[in-house]
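Why does this matter for the project? Reviewers at the last site visit asked to see concrete outputs rather than summary tables. In response, this paragraph embeds two records directly. Each consists of the residue sequence and, immediately after it, the corresponding structure tokens. Nothing has been edited or filtered.
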Amino acid sequence: MAQGAANFLCPLFGGIAATGAIARTAANIRTGARSPVAGIVHAAFLLIVVLFAAPLASQIPLATLSGILIAVALRMAEWENFHTLWRSQRTDFAVMLVALLLTVIFDLTVGVGAGLVMAVVMFVRRMEEVANVQLLTPGNDPETEGAFSLRGKTVPDGVVPFRFHGPLFFAAADKLESALRGSGGRPRAVIFRMRYVPSMDATAIQVLRVAVEKMRRDGVRIYVTGIQPQPMSALFKSGVADLIGIENFCGDIDEALRRSAAD
């Protein structure tokens, strides 16, 4: 019933309802299916078989049907991907191999579910490795020129710039907290360069909120530069943008340096 309801509803959202069985779907696509007509033809053929040819279909040996399914499965396997994944990402190859073995030993639901969980864990780990927050100086700035670079520029006394890089989510929240806590001393202003932060989740926002509230109590001005749409929306909806002050969101780091020098 769930598959039937899904097949009725998915065309309303641009989907192509073919079948609840992945083998028939793959066979459909590999033989040239490109539009919803493929699903209509498939459903009509099954209806005809059920209504008019059921006695004949019941005489088909199961060994024959098994052979057809094995042939379809071999064509679905895309064996060239094994070699490609083995040469590129061994972890991705391991996920695929485990999903394949669990599918053969148990069933498709177990294999796909386990593979999905492993892929999610690996993705979170990779994103956590990419995300970082660090103190920014004219000497360690990887950007060499432009309005967002500190190279060759003077940072006013008492101003501490931070470089945010990568998605800030629960797995990277400890990096954000450690960097903000380890800046040392009590600056009169901080600059958060966030142009390379594509997204923030609730955990990272909460860590940032705690840090902002502490800085506000200590009288520290906060400037944010180059923030992208999703983090800006998240900060605005959570109220952190109001704590920082909408007027303290700057277009680039040059503007933040000028304003921090004038304060």
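We now turn to the second protein, recorded in exactly the same manner.
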Amino acid sequence: MESKTVIYDTSNRVATILLNRPSAMNAFDTQLRLDLMAAIRQAGGDDDVRVIVISGAGRGFSSGADLQHGIKPYDTFEAQMLAEYKPFLMAIHNSPKLFISAINGPCAGIATALAMACDLTVMAEDAYLYQAFAAIGLVPDGGACWHLVRAIGYKRALQAFVECEKITARDCLQLGLANHVVAADELMPFAQSWAEKLADGSPLAQRYTKELLKQAMSLDLPEVIDLEAKTQFTTSTSRDARHAIEAFFKKEKPRFEGR
């Protein structure tokens, strides 16, 4: 795809989406929000893409919303959020494919919501999540509250928000907000290699496990067991499962087609 504010590339069943407004620290203006949605939609609709990596061009992931651009052409921020932010955030949340946020440098404001919306995260050693909202008299948005309170609990999340905390990569790893921390110059090669490894896995298992875990957060144990059993029937009767079991007994590497 051609875009002014997003660099889109595919390789070995992995799509990479780079936020590309480096002169503005990849701050979100209307064009970037629309281009990001288009890139996510393209990756989602490409059968050859199994895993999507999102990162930022230049020296940071994103500084959040571009305050210089304000809310135009909307009358309220609420209208802008529902029209331009929520669609790409929910597209990631609802996608059957896995998303990896590869966080380089600063990741602030609503960009933290984007990073946390991704299923998995790798951070550069010098990267951090900056909950900058209260510093300018605002509350968290883009689902940041939902993600952070589930990841680190009420008291720790509240402290991070009201104290406008910069959560370092190492702290993110300890708190469960990141899966890996690597040297800055290794970030994108690591993200690509990790994504390719995941792309070799079972698309059905990944899709349904993602769905199960998200639903498990709001269900009780008996409901989760019932849901797992129902989903396991779906996966166990798939063509991929049959072939993978045959490959297991033959001591061969399975090849998954997502069927």
